[in-house]
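Action item from last week, closing it out:
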Amino acid sequence: MSEFKKGIMYATFAYIIWGILPIYWNLVNEIVPFEILAHRIIWSAVFMLLLLTFTKQLSMFKNATIKLFKQKKMLLAIIAAGYIITVNWGTFIWAVNNHHVLQASLGYYINPLMSIFLAFIFLGERFSKAQWIAIALAFIGVIYMTFQVGEFPYVSILLATSFALYGLIKKVVDIDAFSSITIECIVTLPAALIYIFYLSQNDAITFGMNHSSGWLLLSGAITAIPLILFSAGARRIPLSLTGFIQYIGPTLMFFIGIFLLGEHFDVDQLITFIFIWAGIILYSYTKYVEINRNRKKLIKDF
C-alpha cells in the first residue's frame, strides 16, 4: 500500500473514531462531566508515557522537551494548546452528557470556517469572495438559530473556536506529534489532579465501583489513538485532502444524535444546518478548484 493510501486510511479512521465518540461518552454518563474530563487528562498522560516507553521514543520526547525550555514562546504556546484542547474536551463531554450532540456536530462543521477566519486575523491569509460568502452563510445559520430557535449555539461556537485555536497553535509550534500530545497532557495534569483531590475532600467523587468507571479507564487510549492516527495521516496527504475527510466526524455525530440518542431535531434546526452545509459545500468547492489549479500549474511547470 502506498504512503498516500495509508495517509487516507489513517485520517479516515481518526475521524471515524472522533465521530462515534458520543457513543463512548454516553457509556460513562454515571460520572459528572468535569470529573470525566479530569480522568481523561490523567489516563491520557499515563497512556502516552507508556506508549513512548514501549515504542522507545522517550529520548525523542526528552529532546523535544529540552527544545521547548530553550524557546520560551514555544513552551507557552504548547501550554496554551494543552488548556485550549482541555476546554474543547470538556465542552464536548458536557454536550454529550447533556443531550447536545447535534450542537457538537454543528460546531465541528463550523470549525474549518472558523479556522480560515482565524488565519485571516492572525496569519494574514487572504481569501476569495466565495470563501467569505461561505463564512457569511455559517454566520447567518448561527444568527438564525439564535433568534428563531431562541438558543445561541454556545456549545457549537466554543467547540469550533477552541479547536480552531488549537489547530492554529499547532501550526506554528514545530514539535513532533507524540511529544506534543504528551506534553499537553502533562501540563494540564496538575489541574486534573487538584480537581480530583478537591472532589475527594468534599466526598463528591462519582468514579468508583460502577459500570461507567470501567469504561473511563479506556479514556486515555480513546483520546490518544485518533490523535496519533490523524498525525500519521496528515504527514502523508495534503492538508486540503484532510479538510475534506474531516467532515466524516460531524456527519457521524449528526446521525448518532438523531437516530441513536434520539435528540430533538425540528425544521428550524434543519434550516440552521442547511446554512452551515451550504457554507461548507461552497468552501469545499473553492478548495477543490484550488487543488486542481495548483495541480495543472505543477504539470505545466514540469
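Closing note: The longest helix spans residues 267-301.
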